[in-house]
Design brief:
The complex is a heterodimer of chains A (255) and B (358). Chain A has a single domain, classed as MetI-like (MetI-like fold, Orthogonal Bundle). Chain A contains 11 helices and no strands. Chain A is globular and about 70 Å long. Chain A starts with a helix and ends with a helix. In chain B, strands 1, 2, 3, 4, 5, 6, 7, 8, 9, 10 and 11 form an 11-stranded mixed sheet that branches. The chains are: A mainly alpha (255), B alpha/beta (358). Chains A and B meet through helix 3, helix 5 and helix 10 of A and helix 1, strand 1, strand 2, helix 7 and helix 8 of B.
């Protein structure tokens, strides 16, 4: 028994190391005084300073934040009612709608990107930051639906029935009973969608238009013109932010 | 009827959300165009780091316009983006061979030479480049060569030929570009052939020469070979001059040579896109970027040569004399532009795949 425990521990240790070592190396080298990412020349905050004064990069970061905020609001606005609707549907329509809503989760992102691009071109919607927002909403919608539904399924239907019984209108039932109960799941889903949107490269790559360079796109193009620890510094900030958001999201879900 | 009510409610929500969204977006668009004192916005699509914010601000102030910069990382990405239907960009920076492709696809607007007085000051060898001899669509902006970066403390005597990349003494300390046409270009020039050859037997021979070289090659890298050179992991690297010049800052013993057999010359060019809504301003922007002093500042920062010959007057001497930035004048006739090889590209593709699978 004891031996088994050690095995299990070392295997999970290796697994965690495999996942996190590259990130740790990345963060450590963001404090490197040297321009080279291969050699260590002492501790320095230099690259964070460079990052702070890099206008193009900050503009890209602002774009990313805008896209994340707007697309998240959009998916919450669409996803919560969709989840509630799905929960109430009965019969064949539900199965069909469920499949349709969840398909983007399993669809390769590249296909999603190409499809969205073709769609925007077809309806003559010029590519811009707005198309990126819509694109992100498209792949984040199923995420929100799945998470909110998981919560809805656990709700006791008698609570809503009781509310109606006591004379509450449909809206009152929603505001006073259903919403407070699903709110943690909605917040969690929103934070997760926000994080996914912030990190997305593939769909963004296809649907971004003039003036819509997001942070991941910018980083990718920077790698081409020569790596510098500025990218490490930026990645460290992003890792920290993403971790914080995912942590928050988990906290809301547990509640 | 709980089913249909739920559905109706849901569809209603969707409709409202879509309408709201549409409305928001319209508002934003008109704001951008009509608001802010009717300021024109110029969209510049370029390589990351190609333009410094100070220069952009100078242009913005001089012309009362706003410049929005977006970046791409390869010519192929630029082409894909525009083919995919992205419109709204005004000025882009394709490389020489991509200018031909984009022009053939009708993506470029004809330039107005009257609006580009700085065109007169181009370097002699850029005045009638093969890809656009009359500057109908493109103005060369920055240019350079592909050659060999090496560590002069290890590689002695200084090499002058591509053959050094086949020298067994440097086994495992050589890097080649991870770029099919460039790698074949180097080997073809070393064989005394054109790097745009379409002769399958020559390509076959070039492939065998590359396969023979492969055991000596540490890596095929297009992005971080400057770092490999600077850290000493490789002592010979096929590479773009500017990037090798940047490695020199970290390891002063690094030198650059354009082999005597010649190599690639490249130029990134300024073009106006056919779909550009602000063509006149776009021409002014191009003329601004190739202005001698502006180009000199860009050149000093990026360590690529400026297309404007008068820029040399403003560039510091050590950069002018660095062959990685400005190749020696006597070598320029031996340099070759990368051309379109048409269907033979498939032969190159196959040979490259075979090399990589060895």
């Amino acid at each position: 028994m004891r031996g088994q425990g050690i095995w299990l521990q070392s295997i999970s240790g290796l697994g965690i190391a495999f996942l996190y070592l590259p990130i740790i190396v990345l963060v450590v080298f963001s404090f490197n005084a040297s321009r080279l990412s291969a050699t260590w020349q002492g501790f320095s905050w230099h690259w964070y300073g460079v990052l702070w004064h890099d206008e193009a990069l900050l503009a890209a970061a602002a774009n990313s934040l805008w896209v994340a905020v707007l697309s998240t609001s959009l998916v919450v606005l669409l996803g919560v009612p969709a989840a509630m609707g799905l929960e109430r549907l009965r019969g064949r329509g539900r199965q069909a709608l469920e499949t349709i809503f969840l398909l983007p989760l399993v669809l390769p992102e590249v296909m999603m990107g190409v499809a969205l691009l073709l769609f925007f071109v077809m309806i003559h919607w010029p590519l811009s930051l707005a198309t990126v927002v819509v694109g992100h909403a498209a792949f984040n919608l199923p995420v929100v639906i799945v998470m909110v539904r998981a919560r809805l399924q656990k709700l006791d239907p008698r609570l809503e029935e009781a509310a109606s019984d006591l004379g509450a209108s449909a809206w009152q039932t929603f505001y006073r009973v259903t919403w407070p109960l699903v709110r943690p799941a909605v917040l969690g889903a929103a934070l997760l969608a926000f994080t996914i949107s912030l990190d997305d490269f593939i769909v963004t790559f296809f649907v971004a238009g003039p003036g819509a360079t997001t942070l991941p796109l910018k980083v990718y193009s920077m790698i081409k013109s020569g790596l510098s620890p500025e990218i490490n510094a930026l990645s460290s900030v992003l890792v920290l932010a993403s971790m914080g958001l995912v942590g928050l999201s988990l906290m809301f879900q547990r509640r | 009827m709980p089913v249909s009510r739920g559905l109706v409610r849901f569809l209603g929500f969707v409709a409202i959300a879509v309408l709201l969204w549409n409305g928001c977006d319209r508002g934003r668009e008109t704001n951008q165009q009509g608001g802010a004192g009717a300021m024109v916005t110029l969209h510049y699509f370029t390589w990351s780091d190609y333009v410094s914010p100070e220069l952009i601000h100078e242009f913005e102030q001089a012309h009362g316009a706003r410049v929005v910069v977006d970046t791409f990382s390869s010519n192929e990405e630029l082409l894909a983006k525009l083919q995919g239907g992205a419109s709204g960009y005004d000025v882009a920076v394709p490389s020489d061979f991509m200018v031909s492709i984009m022009a053939a696809q009708g993506m470029l607007a004809e330039l107005d030479s009257a609006a580009l007085p700085n065109l007169k000051a181009l370097e002699p060898h850029l005045q009638h480049p093969a890809f656009d001899p009359t500057h109908r669509y493109a103005v060369p902006y920055l240019w350079g060569t592909v050659g060999i970066g090496y560590d002069s403390t290890v590689v002695t005597p200084p090499p002058d030929s591509w053959d050094i990349l086949w020298d067994k003494r440097y086994r495992g300390r050589i890097s080649m570009l991870n770029d099919q046409r460039e790698v074949f270009g180097a080997v073809l020039r070393s064989m005394g052939q054109s790097m745009n050859t379409t002769d399958p037997t020559v390509i076959e021979a070039a492939k065998h020469k590359l396969i023979a070289q492969k055991p000596l090659v540490k890596t095929y890298a297009s992005e971080h070979y400057d770092q490999l050179l600077a850290s000493g992991d490789v002592v010979l690297a096929q590479g773009w001059g500017g990037q090798v010049a940047r490695a020199m800052r970290d390891r002063p013993s690094i030198r650059y040579v354009v082999p005597k057999e010649g190599g690639t010359i490249w130029a990134d060019c300024l073009v106006v896109l056919r779909t550009s809504p602000n063509k006149a301003l776009a021409m002014q922007f191009i003329n601004f970027l190739i202005d001698a002093r502006v180009a000199a500042r860009t050149s000093e920062r990026l360590l690529f040569a400026a297309s404007n010959r008068e820029a040399r007057a403003w560039i510091s001497r050590d950069i002018l004399e660095n062959p990685a930035v400005y190749p020696p004048a006597e070598l320029i006739p031996r340099m070759e532009w990368m051309g379109d090889v048409g269907k033979v590209m498939r032969t190159y593709d196959r040979a490259w795949t075979e090399l990589k699978m060895q």
